[in-house]
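Researcher: I'm preparing a figure for a lab meeting and need a structural model of a single chain. I don't have an experimental structure, so a prediction will have to do for now. The sequence is pasted below. Please return the structure as tokens so I can convert it later.
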Amino acid sequence: MNIRPLQDRVLVKRLEETTKTAGGIIIPDTAKEKPSEGLVEAVGPGALNSEGKLIPMNVKVGDKVLFGKWAGTEVKLNGEERLLIKESEILGVIEE
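Model: Understood. Here is the structure written out token by token.
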């Protein structure tokens, strides 16, 4: 199943955080917070302004992004969890 986000929405796959601290302590799954980094898998065409003109997206497929803890809506695609968020909820693009 494929999904094409509408307007200024972005489909993001959460990136897994490390399960060990710097001191070598293993963090159990129940104590871990959900990661706030993800990989953009699909983007919508952009939002329309008040004049009806399309405002293009600032992120593209393949970008590694940082988003807020409670951002977006979780969806399940092909048995895997994804996050569908508005572009305005993305805090930044991680450049390596």
